[in-house]
Design a protein that fits this description.
Shape: elongated
Number of helices: 6
Structural class: alpha/beta
Distance between the termini: 59 Å
Largest sheet: 6 strands, parallel, barrel
Strand content: 35-45%
Length: 525
């Protein structure tokens, strides 16, 4: 039994008897007694009360010289914030005072409209064997059983990110990066787990509580994959490289070439492309999957839906565009754009843009000249050069978002211009129609086309404006972006993090550039 108390009215005033707990139950909390006395405006000596509760010696201790009227047995109800439970806390009467009845409790519950989940056994048990100053569950609602959103489980690595390893001699192995998801014909690629509907709950007032809505989804599939009849599983139709791009699973086969030059012409292939030699200047390779080039890429254009791996490097005006990661030995006077990461041993006078991070490591590990942009992080040994090469490092926002924002601005401006050009014709037609003018069927059809065009352009502007607002919100979100220098950042280097900027005025070594207290600051690695 819990520890509890009882007020006693004596000739000398009001006393209290404190009963110690039994069988290892909880002792009486003095705050419970104080709240009880305060609620009934009963005066008491704080020090004496505290001592009586602490000792719990079962003797009557006078806490006030004033005599009180008898206090009948009472109860305090507590309703949880979610209205799912009601607990009762019973207090004993003063010696000889009146007891509550079970009917009184049931009538009180009805008066308070506690109608669901009434624990009649607990109530009856109390009146058979009273226990005071202890929480007793009186009502218990039925909890909501939340459902589960549908989800697609992928049976291959969907988050391929280049992570080169450092060799014993200090050089970096860029070519064993586990970026290829090889699958065989018939391999299971994805499984759909359908949504599970939730079950409504009921609170103590008998009110239904709806579960949260669940989301449905489905397996998105591309070429060389087979969806089962029940649309629950996806398998590989042929052996190849499996990728997940924009939520769609695709298996690409591989085209292998000795070189890309006058003998082959430009390459446009749905699968992956492996070039054993070089991609000659002014030629292009476009692949839906990966592109791997073992020789040099000089003044050529490569565009891949997934990763691009250059075992030598890119230079002299090369333009590299990857839907995934780019891994290359070096980048010199080239333009690199990747939705994933960019990994290289050095970047010289180039424009590099990454949707995640840029890692420049290895023996040299420098970024000198040009501009390097990454959404999350840029890491290198050297930034800039002793000669003061103008080097810009920009992190903190996805470069693809900025590109899309420019596209949306251009689209909205063009749509608005077209609306303004057709508006006078539509307005004039409306005025003449109201004035009673008659028009030929051809004229009416022509104006109807303009009205439909105006509606389409207006909807286009609204959709573009909504996307523009969403992208601006993403762009303004604070990101924990950083620039890490494992060696030296030389003067002439500009570090931009979001909308903040720092120009390196003197050499900085072994530091991180981070946003702190509203500015770009240096922190130790």
């Amino acid at each position: 039994m819990h520890g509890y108390f009882q007020l006693v009215i004596t000739d000398n005033g009001t006393g209290i008897r404190v009963f110690p707990p039994t069988n290892g139950d909880e002792a009486l909390d003095v705050n419970v007694v104080r709240d009880y006395l305060d609620d009934r405006k009963i005066q008491y000596d704080v020090v004496v009360l505290n001592e009586a509760v602490t000792k719990a010696e079962d003797d009557v201790v006078i806490i006030s010289e004033a005599k009180i009227l008898p206090e009948r047995e009472s109860v305090k109800f507590d309703v949880s914030k979610d209205h799912m439970t009601v607990t009762a806390y019973f207090f004993p009467p003063t010696e000889g005072a009146e007891l509550l009845t079970e009917k009184e409790i049931m009538d009180t519950l009805a008066y308070r409209k506690y109608s669901y989940g009434i624990q009649t056994d607990n109530i009856h048990k109390f009146f058979e064997h009273r226990e005071y100053c202890k929480e007793i569950l009186i009502c218990q609602g039925k909890p909501v059983k939340q459902g589960q959103n549908a989800k697609v489980e992928y049976h291959f690595n969907t988050n391929l990110r280049a992570k080169p390893t450092l060799k014993e001699d200090g050089s970096v192995d860029y070519f064993n990066l586990n970026l290829i998801n090889n699958v065989n014909e018939g391999d299971l690629l994805a499984t759909l787990h359908k949504e599970v509907l939730g079950e409504p709950g009921i609170n103590i007032y008998g009110e239904n509580i709806k579960p949260a809505a669940v989301k449905t989804t489905f397996i998105k599939y591309g070429k060389n994959t087979v969806l089962s009849e029940d649309k629950m599983t996806l398998k590989a139709e042929k052996s190849g490289h499996v990728t997940l791009k924009e939520g769609k699973v695709t298996v690409s086969d591989v085209l292998t070439l000795e070189n890309v030059d006058v003998a082959t012409g430009n390459i446009d292939y749905e699968g992956s492309v492996v070039v054993k030699g070089v991609v000659a200047s002014n030629f292009s390779v476009k692949a839906g999957g990966n592109i791997v080039v073992k020789g040099i890429v000089e003044g050529a254009t490569l565009e891949a839906g997934s990763d691009i791996i250059l075992e030598c490097g890119a230079k002299a005006g090369g333009n590299i565009i990857a839907g995934g990661n780019v891994v290359t030995k070096f980048i010199e006077n080239a333009t690199i754009t990747a939705k994933g990461s960019v990994t290289s041993e050095c970047i010289l006078h180039s424009n590099v843009s990454s949707g995640t991070e840029v890692n420049v490591t290895g023996k040299r590990g420098f970024i000198a000249g040009g501009k390097v942009i990454a959404a999350d992080k840029v890491q290198a040994k050297i930034l800039g050069s002793e000669m003061g090469a103008n080097t810009i490092i920009d992190v903190g926002s996805d470069p693809q978002i900025k590109v899309r924002l420019k596209e949306l601005q251009k689209n909205m401006a063009l749509s608005q211009k077209n609306i303004e050009s057709i508006k006078p014709t539509i307005d004039g037609f409306s005025k003449m129609l109201k004035a009673g003018a008659k028009f030929s069927p051809e004229q009416v059809a022509s104006v109807k086309k303009l009205i439909d065009m105006n509606k389409t352009l207006t909807e286009s502007i609204e959709n573009d404006a909504e996307e523009y607002t969403q992208l601006m919100e993403k762009l303004q979100e604070a990101k924990e972006a950083e620039v890490i220098v494992e060696g030296t950042a030389y003067p002439g280097t500009t570090v931009n993090i979001g909308e903040l900027s720092m120009i390196v005025k003197k050499p900085v070594q072994y530091s991180r550039f981070v946003v702190k207290e509203g500015d770009v600051r240096l922190a130790p690695i």
